[in-house]
Amino acid sequence: MSLTRQLTFAVLIAQSVRQIGGGLCDVSTKSTMLMQVTTKTEKQSLVGFEERQESATDSKRAWDKMFALATRATKHENTTSVQEGDIAFSLQDVSRHFKDMAQQEASNDLASTPDKATLKAIEDMVRQMEQGMDKEHASSQSVVDNAETLVQDCATAAHATLKDIAGLKRTMESGRVEHSACRTAEVGDRRDKEKACKAWDDYRMNPANNQAPLCISNKLTRPAISTKESVLKSEMESCIRSTDHWVSSLHEQLKSCDLLTTTHTNKTEDCKAKQRTFESSFCTYAAKLDDACDAQDVCRNSTIAGMKRVLVSEKNAEMVRKSEFEAGQKILCFINVFKVNASLKKQTLERCKSVEANDSKYNITYHSIPVAAVCNKESVVPCNSGWLQREYRSQSWHSQANMGACQACPSPKPAPTPSPPPQIGCKLKCHAGKHFEDYGGNCDTEKSLTGWNFIRKGDYQVLEDTCQKTSFKTLQWYYSWCGGRRGSRMFVDGSDHNGGWKQIAVGTIDAKTCGVHNMTNVQLDPSYHGKRYNWWRLRHNHNTHNHGALIGWIRIIS
Length: 558
Known about the structure:
By secondary structure, the protein is of the alpha+beta class. The chain is built from 10 helices and 16 strands. It has helices spanning 3-15, 40-51, 56-74, 91-106, 116-205, 216-219, 222-225, 230-339, 342-354, 385-393; strands at 19-20, 23-24, 34-36, 86-88, 424-427, 429-434, 437-438, 452-453, 460-464, 474-479, 486-495, 502-511, 515-518, 520-524, 535-545, 551-557. It has a 6-stranded antiparallel sheet with strand order 6-9-15-11-12-14, with no helix packed on it. Strands 5-16-10-13 form a 4-stranded antiparallel sheet, with no helix packed on it. The longest helix has 110 residues, at 230-339. The protein is elongated, with a radius of gyration of 47 Å. The chain starts with a helix and ends with a strand. The relative contact order is 0.10.
C-alpha cells in the first residue's frame, strides 16, 4: 500500500469520529470502522496521490488534500453510490500503517514528514476516540450490571410475593391446627357419648331395671285412675309412686345418652366445617405458591439467558476495546518518531514497538448468576393420596373421626389462547415519491448509505405490496445509516388501486442504530377497521430528530 494511501486511511479514521451530517457520530469501536470513498473524483484523487508520491511538495499537497477528502466524506458530499470503491479498515490497521511510516521516518526513507498540525489532528482524534471508548466501557459495565440486576430482580420479586404468601400459609396452618383440635375434641365427645349410651343400654337391659312394677297392669288402668273408691284410689296412687321411681331412673340414663349424642353430632358438623376451611385455605396457599415459583422460573430463564448473551457480547467488546486502545496508544507513540530529533528517531521507534499499553481501565467486572429465592412447591395437595395420608390418616384421631368428603382444589384455569403472532409481509416495492435524499437501493437494500428519507411536508413515498393485500397494525423498516439518530413522524395511507387514498394511521420512524426496527407510537385512525390494502403511501408529518431516517426497505405488519 502506498504511503499516501496509508496516510489517507489514518486521517479518514481520525476524521470519522467528527460530526457527521450535523450530529455527533456514534462510532462503535466494537466493530471494524468503515469509511466509503465513492465518487470517481475522490478515487482519482487517491490515484493522483500515489502518482505524486515521489515529490515532497506533492506529498505535502496530498496531506492537505487528504483532510479535504476526509471532511467531504464525513459530510456525505458527492456520495451517491457505495457499489464500488469501498475501503474498510480498523484502528489496528492504522497502527500498523503508522508503524511502517515511523520505520521509514526513522530510516530517513519518508519523502515528506507530515506537518505538526496534521500530527496534532491525528493525536486529537485518537484521544477523542479514547474518550469514546471510556464512555463505551462505562456503558458496557452498566449493561453487565443491569443484566445481573435483572436476574436478581427475579428473586427480589419472588421474595416479596413469598412474603405475602407467608400470610396465606399461616392461615392454612392455623386451619390445620383448629381442624386437628376439633377432631381430637370430637373423638373425646364420641367416647363420652358411647360411654353414656352404653351405661343406658347396660341399665335398661339389667333384669333388675327392665321389669316394670306389677301394679301397672291393673292399678294404672283408666278405671283405676278415675276411681272414686278410696281403697282403689290409694292403691293407684301407691303404684304411681313406685312407677315414678322406676321411670325416673330409666330416664336419667337415657337423657345422659341423648345429651352427649347431640354434643357429639354438633362437634362432628363443626369439624366438617373446619375441614372444609382447612382444605380450601391449603388450596389457596398452594396455588399462590405454585404461581410464585413458576413466575420466578420464567423470569430467571429469560434473564439468565439474557445475562449470558450480555456476558459473551461484552467480553468480546472488552477484548476489542482493549485492542483498539492499545492500537491508539501505539499510534500516539509512533507519532513521536516524527517529532523527535533525527538522533532519537530509531530509539523512539524501538521503544514504541515494545510499548505495552495499560488497558486495565477497560476491565469489566463480571458477576456470577444470582441465586434464586428458595421457593418449594407443595409436593401434595388436598385429596390426593399423599396429602390424605399426611394430613388425616396418620393422625391419632382419624380412625374415630366422622370425616367429611374431601374437597379437591379447583383445576387451574386453562391458559388463555394466545393472540396470533404478528404477520410480517414481504418487502414493498417503491413507486412514485418525493424525498429529501435518495441514495438508491430500489426499496430493497441493507447496504450502508442507501435508501431514501423525508425532511419536509410534501415528501411522500408510494409503495406496493406485490404479494397480497394485508391489514395494518404497524410496519417494519430497515435503517440504512449507521451514523446516529434520525427520525420523523409520518402518515400511513392505504388504497387498493393506487388512488383514492384513505388515511389509516400515523406513526414514528425513528432510530439511532442501523438495522431492523418497527414503527412506534402508532395511532390507528378511528375510522379504520382492519381493511386490507396492497397499495400504501407514507407522508411526512414532522421531524422527530434532525431529519427523516434513511429507509432501506419496508414491510407491513398485520
